[in-house]
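It would be a great kindness if you could assist me with a short task in structural biology. Thank you for your consideration; the sequence and its tokens are set out here.
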Amino acid sequence: MNSSHDVLILGGGAIGLATALSLLEAGRGVRILEAATVGGATSHGNCGTVTPSHAPPLAAPGVPLRALRWMFTPDAPLYLKPRIDPALWQWLARFTARCNSGDWMDSARARAALLNDSRSRLVDWVGRYGLDCEFGETGLDYVFRDRRNFEHYAAECAPLNAMGIATEVVDGADYLRQEPSLKDGIVGAVRFPDDAHLRPDRYVAELARAVRERGGMIEEGCRVESIEPGDDGVRVRVADGSERHGRDAVVAMAAWTPELIRPLGLRLPIQPGKGYSITYSKLALAPRRPIVLKDRSVCVTAWGSGFRLGSTMEFSGHDTTLNEVRLAALERAAREYLHQPPDASMIQEKWYGWRPMTWDDLPALGRSPKHRHLWLAAGHGMLGISMSSASGQLMADLMTGRAPAIDPAPYRVERFQ
């Protein structure tokens, strides 16, 4: 099949779908090309939190020293698999250089702009498109057993408040009275009352439904092998040898984006940060809102339809192993903190996925600096769900020439070239 379309969107995860929906609302036609199934990769198994609270980037003062201590600890929250990989070490050098207070604040402000816009926009989308995705506005809590760690995060509340991210510091005893699912030993919590949550697999399925209902087309099992931008649009070759032609094309392929665009002379320094989760059936005594066990870097989310433990960050390339050591760290944290941790009989799914991590913790959103009809929307790290609606709207605004809701400058593709 050789066919021509208005906008081709390469990648059917949360970012690609949100971009498609926003473009349809702006009057453009879209066709999504997805290598496997819609939402079946990075968007599928995360903890589904919608988190303005996560504006502070991973690149922060003190992180390099902690990373060195964890490097050879296979179940550490941040793990670097020892190997010879020049691209990884170059990425780590740039990441390390940004672990200072000035760059931390710059990235945090830019992340906050996307996250705050996405958080408010998502409420509108849930209502307007009838997204049945277990969306809840209960907030999110960081919970601590280590007092020094608690005090460190409590001290970050002032700069977060200045960015428009509401915080509340809760004493440990008060918190335990509010949250009966947790064992004794909590010294304190930081609450983010404006955070929200949803079930990510249902969210992407609902986005796909909304796209189809508005005339968008989605091809699943359509793996893109190469792209050829030209003066009249972009030609895309897929695995079966056929071609698609688009007036414009958006590459939204998460951690697979750099490989596709490299032959075009474009650099996008994304490393695949492997995350894990375990999904269980519904837990009787579950936390009332999503919580992050910050001393263990484990997220706990309960929905009406189930319960999930997730997180960890592993830099091991595109390793396809389901690492039981990493999964065991999630289970161990649940046993340490929860009165009623889930057991093996409740497991529905064990999962891993690659988050597309840039060294400045910001996505690349905008036009290719070398190709008029090619656009990029990738590099959202751990926040693809949280940033999806804002990223999709920003891409649609840029592609249709409308004034964007937020300043696009921090996310320009040119910063990596």
Summary: The radius of gyration is 21 Å. Residues 55-85+137-196+270-358 form a domain with the D-Amino Acid Oxidase; Chain A, domain 2 fold (CATH 3.30.9.10). The chain has a mean pLDDT of 95.
